[in-house]
Specification:
This protein is about 40% helix and about 20% strand. With about 700 residues, it is α+β, with helices and mostly antiparallel strands. The chain folds into five domains: about 55 residues, Helix Hairpins (Orthogonal Bundle), CATH 1.10.287; about 230 residues, 2-Layer Sandwich (D-amino Acid Aminotransferase, Chain A, domain 1), CATH 3.30.470; about 80 residues, Nucleic acid-binding proteins (OB fold (Dihydrolipoamide Acetyltransferase, E2P), Beta Barrel); about 150 residues, Orthogonal Bundle (DNA polymerase, domain 1), CATH 1.10.150.20; about 80 residues, 3-Layer(aba) Sandwich (Rossmann fold). The structure holds nicotinamide-adenine-dinucleotide and zinc ion. Belongs to the NAD-dependent DNA ligase family. LigA subfamily.
Length: about 700
């Protein structure tokens, strides 16, 4: 044997070992070690070597097999019709070659052949068997001949009919399709997993497959999975459908989801046109597709064409550029979001991912950096799908260079230098600069001016943006120094509206301590907490000098909120802003300690159903701020029930007992009136500051 022969044998053996290992990680562990692009490159190389040296082909080569053998944790299910793979085309030339091959076998013109095109959903393939219209078994593909029985897991998917629709179901139906997770659900699922330190999936495909292969169906039931049908493997008695596309429509009648993008085209030109169009749509879809599946539409012609080892001859998968690629992590920078959240951003060696050059990706937070174990200099796999921000999903630790550097989380905000705080139990680190941090300025000012804070009439979002962008306003105190003539220079701000705004600012100077505290935008200090703090401490000085323990003594204030308040007033620039505001004439009557106007004192209220304008907790806090107790169940003593969308038994009970019921609109109206009562009292007390507006 020559050296060349030996190195060929070595390469084939190495590729097979790598592919076998990758298959196990991908199909059994749902935790791939390679990107699909890297996997596909290796498989292609092995196919080329085997094509050039047919004697090297063995029946157990990864080129001859599908998937991986089923996991022992599940019952085995034999597929009556094997679940195969698909041949791939990576270019338009390869698509044209596929049409030519089909045409040659069928001895017809390629342009005369009808093909059904559908998106290639990137999820996990499953097969469902229905007898007399009832779901009997559901299985994964496994190695194509034997799959894993996951019937109870599949029963939890709402898109899988447990019983076929219509009154004449076929005696036997075997349907195949893909189980997927859409982008938003996938992001939400991973965000939760990160917070709970549970398993984070690299991509929606792995998440779908991993969710299906849970030993406890209750876990599967919590996962946002969808089944879309794309094939009929068996139907008895035959229903007379002559084409694949007709069968798909028939599946729709039985109650299955099928692709909305399905289309029948003719010849190579029709296929190429479809692939281009779907490729353009890809980024706008809210689910992952990795290509187009093209099938000869005529079922008789499909039978005539038949199968080769691992794929049908009548179909091909046109592959889009992969959504995951590997590249080098050059550096990490820290960005400050509008609410102060600090996000580590990976600066990458630019790489083309699914047709777009990517040079930045998110690393989410410090926990994620630790979970990935990533260092500067590492080779990383990044993923870009749809309009979701590209993410680092994996680190190739075996490729780590010797000069790789640790990623150090900053202690001070890169924008304003304020301390970065990260509270126990929170994943996100935040700049404590608040009002002072340029990155947070717009949001802080919007909050400051909002109706339930200082209620500055006429100071809307657009105007705040214009003021901040011109650097006329950097802290809230600057608002009170604005002059009407200058404001009139702004676009869409006549003399009249400028004067009105100055008048509104003058009026807003007279406020309440509770509103003032709320307006400062201290983290997690909502209206109700601000009111409690004002009532408890009575003066701003007392609040500002309170220690952590004093703060925890306040009604409804726990250690986390106490820490936020404490840190806030320990920042010199926040103190300066507060002093500056008072110097600008902001004032309030000292709060009578322990008292506040409480129109609902002594009343018990109940909230039920979903409110569109606020969460139930917010509703509760606002009722409590007005003195009400909020209970979980309705009784004769209940003063009122707030019933949102889809209110159920509590609403019934309230009606039986004659308890007054408010729908959301009525509730909002009453809240505004009660809260305005409080506001009115405040303006009377500060009436010397009222403008003439
Ligand atoms: N990253 C890794 O380590 C790794 C390992 C193994 C496999 N893979 C990836 O898996 C793929 C190969 O797997 P494969 O053998 O399942 O082939 P495939 O995914 O290329 O094609 C076959 C599959 O397409 C799916 N499909 C989606 N929409 C369809 C439709 N409308 N009609 C018919 N089928 C449809 C079916 O689930 C079917 O099983 C490659 O993309 C490869 O990169 C990756
Ligand atoms: Zn900052």
């Amino acid at each position: 044997m020559t050296n060349a022969d030996q190195s060929l044998l070595d390469e084939v053996a190495r590729l097979r070992a790598e592919l076998d290992d990758a298959n196990h990680r991908y199909y059994v562990l749902d935790d791939p070690s390679l990107t699909d692009a890297d996997y596909d490159r290796r498989l292609r190389r092995l196919q080329e070597l085997e094509a050039a040296h047919p004697a090297l082909v063995t029946p157990d080569s990864p080129t001859q097999r599908v998937g991986a053998p089923p996991d022992a944790g599940f019952p085995e299910i034999e597929h009556a019709v094997p679940m195969l793979s698909l041949d791939n085309a990576f270019s338009e030339e390869e698509l044209a070659a596929f049409v030519a091959r089909v045409a040659e076998r069928l001895e017809v013109e390629g342009d005369a052949i009808a093909f059904c095109c559908e998106p290639k959903l990137d999820g996990a393939a499953v097969s469902l068997v229905y007898e007399e219209g009832v779901l009997i078994t559901g299985a994964t593909r496994g190695d194509g001949r034997t799959g894993e029985g996951i019937t109870s897991n599949l029963r939890t998917l709402r898109s899988i009919p447990l019983r076929l629709r219509g009154d004449a179901p076929p005696a036997l139906l075997e349907v195949r399709g893909e189980v997927t997770i859409d982008h938003a659900s996938f992001e939400a699922m991973n965000a939760r997993a990160r917070a709970e330190e549970a398993k984070v999936f690299a991509n929606p495909r792995n998440a779908a497959a991993g969710s299906l292969r849970q030993l406890d169906p209750r876990v599967t039931a919590t996962r946002p999975l969808t089944f879309s049908a794309y094939q009929v493997a068996r139907i008895e008695p035959p229903q007379g459908d002559a084409t694949h596309s007709a069968l798909m429509a028939h599946l729709g009648d039985f109650g299955f989801r099928t692709s909305r993008e399905l289309a029948v085209v003719t010849g190579a030109a029709g296929i190429i046109d479809y692939c281009r169009r779907l490729g353009e749509k890809r980024d706008g879809l809210d689910y992952d597709i990795d290509g187009v599946v093209i099938k000869v539409d005529d079922l008789r012609l499909q039978r005539e064409l038949g199968f080769v080892a691992r794929a049908p001859r009548w179909a091909i998968a046109f592959k889009f550029p992969a959504q995951e690629q590997t590249t080098r992590l050059n550096d990490v920078e820290f960005q400050v979001g509008r609410t102060g959240a600090i996000t580590p951003v990976a600066r990458l060696e630019p790489v083309s991912v699914a047709g777009v050059t990517v040079s930045n990706a998110t690393l989410h937070n410090a926990d994620e950096i630790a979970r990935l174990g990533v260092m500067i200099g590492d080779t990383v796999a990044i993923r870009r799908a749809g309009d979701v921000i590209p993410q680092v999903v994996r680190v190739m630790k075996e490729l780590r260079p010797s000069d790789a550097r640790e990623i150090v989380f900053p202690e001070r905000c890169p924008v304003c230098e304020a301390e970065i705080e990260r509270l126990e139990g929170e994943v996100v680190a935040r700049c404590s600069g608040g009002l002072y941090c340029a990155a947070q300025r717009k949001e802080a000012l919007k909050h400051f001016a909002s109706r339930r804070a200082l209620d500055i009439d006429g100071l809307g979002e657009k105007l705040i943006e214009a003021l901040v962008e011109r650097d006329w306003v950097t802290t809230p105190a600057d608002l009170f120094r604005l002059e009407a003539e200058r404001l009139a220079e702004l676009p869409r701000m006549g003399a009249k509206s400028s004067e009105n705004l100055v008048a509104a600012l003058a009026k807003a100077r007279a406020t309440t301590l509770a509103r003032f505290i709320y307006a400062l935008g201290i983290r997690e200090v909502g209206e109700a907490t601000a009111a409690n703090l004002a009532r408890h401490f009575g003066t701003l000085e007392a609040l500002m000098s309170a220690e952590q323990a004093d703060l925890e003594a306040v009604e409804d204030v726990g250690p986390i909120v106490a820490a936020h308040v404490h840190t806030f007033f320990r920042q010199p620039h926040n103190r300066e802003t507060v002093d500056d505001l008072i110097a600008c004439g902001l004032r309030w009557e000292e709060e009578a300690v322990g008292e506040r106007p409480q129109p609902l004192a002594g009343q018990t209220w109940v909230l039920t159903g979903t409110l569109a304008s606020m969460t139930r907790d917010e509703g509760k806090a606002r009722l409590q701020a007005l003195g009400a107790k909020v209970a979980g169940s309705v009784s004769k003593k209940t003063a009122g029930l707030v019933a949102g969308e889809a209110a159920g038994s509590k609403l019934e009970k309230a009606m039986q007992l004659g308890v007054p019921v408010l729908d959301e609109a009525a509730f909002l109206e009453r809240l505004a009136a009660w809260e305005a009562g409080e506001r009115e009292r405040a303006s009377h007390q500060g009436s010397d500051e009222e403008g003439e507006a």
